[in-house]
């Protein structure tokens, strides 16, 4: 009870501070909101909405229980990117398709970025190199697989799943499809809120000069990527003189970490799944390390 009360006090203090900063710096708040909404409308919404609707529809029909539990969230996460894997795992856990232990194991490799974003937006758009995007994506996905093996060994044995198959909802297909659409938009609204919030925090830190004390440009890019991966990768592309190898390594690490914005989005999707925040942070950290190491070895092979 004391811990819960302390968490509420901390959350209240942080929210109050955020509101105060919005009042003190209204231009930054408006600019960040415009950027966040623009990013959501032009990139996030078209990329995730079809997958969210399809995933919800399949889930409501009970089709997910017909395949291997870990295959569906991994495939959807790879196809559509953050935070699709977390959403599906959260849904499966709430439907009791998987146990809390399985949810912990699966999130270690089912929380990934999408190939379109890594190759198109980061590789071609930011870094000006499709080959860099492909290398980063390869390191990212291989890192996720190794991360999954690592946590599978960690959680081998012990508790067995008490899962039961998803029961198909007693509704007609049109009603199920409508419910899938409404649920998809609800999830995307949560994602929008996190994007705007962390855009504001990143812009506020940048305006206050919080990043200026970091003398080394790549380290500054990594610090920005700690909060928001898109901002971090964009800053990485502006690092003059940084070699191709280090660009790929740092980009792979930033994208595998995901940033606090993605972590917040994912945790909101994992609500009630039994996956605690410290554990999820650890899985993202190890994924980032594995991806960086793989990117290093891949650059030795191709450069």
TrEMBL record:
Q: Where are the bilayer-spanning segments?
A: 7-31, 37-58, 106-128, 134-155, 176-201, 244-264, 276-300
Q: Which domain of life is it from?
A: Bacteria
Give the protein name, as stated in the record.
Sporulation integral membrane protein YlbJ
Please name the taxonomic classification of the source: Bacteria, Bacillati, Bacillota, Clostridia, Peptostreptococcales
What keyword terms does UniProt attach to this protein?
Answer: Membrane, Transmembrane, Transmembrane helix
Question: Does the keyword field hold Cell division?
Answer: no
Q: Which PROSITE patterns match?
A: PROKAR_LIPOPROTEIN
């Amino acid at each position: 009870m004391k811990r819960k009360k302390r968490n509420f006090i901390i959350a209240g203090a942080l929210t109050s501070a955020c509101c105060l900063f919005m009042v003190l710096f209204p231009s930054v708040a408006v600019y960040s909101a415009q950027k966040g909404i623009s990013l959501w409308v032009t990139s996030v919404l078209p990329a995730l909405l079809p997958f969210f609707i399809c995933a919800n529809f399949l889930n409501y029909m009970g089709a997910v229980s017909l395949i291997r539990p870990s295959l569906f969230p991994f495939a959807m996460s790879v196809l559509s990117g953050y935070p699709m894997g977390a959403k599906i795992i959260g849904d499966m856990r709430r439907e009791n398709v998987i146990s809390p232990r399985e949810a912990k194991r699966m999130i270690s490799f089912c929380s990934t970025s999408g190939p379109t974003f890594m190759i198109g937006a980061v590789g071609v758009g930011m870094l000006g190199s499709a080959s860099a995007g492909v290398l980063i994506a390869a390191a990212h996905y291989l890192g996720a697989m190794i991360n999954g093996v690592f946590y599978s060994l960690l959680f081998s044995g012990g508790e067995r799943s008490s899962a039961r198959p998803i029961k198909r909802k007693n509704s007609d297909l049109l009603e199920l499809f409508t419910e899938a659409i409404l649920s998809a938009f609800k999830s995307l609204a949560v994602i929008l809120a996190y994007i705007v919030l962390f855009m504001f925090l990143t812009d506020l830190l940048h305006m206050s000069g919080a990043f200026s004390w970091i003398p080394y440009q790549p380290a500054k890019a990594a610090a920005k990527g700690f909060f928001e991966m898109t901002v971090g990768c964009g800053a990485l592309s502006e690092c003059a003189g940084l070699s191709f190898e280090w660009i790929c390594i740092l980009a792979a690490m930033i994208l595998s970490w995901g940033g606090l914005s993605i972590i917040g989005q994912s945790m909101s999707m994992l609500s009630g799944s039994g996956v605690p925040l410290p554990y999820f942070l650890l899985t993202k950290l190890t994924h980032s390390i594995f991806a960086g190491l793989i990117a290093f070895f891949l650059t030795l092979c191709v450069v």
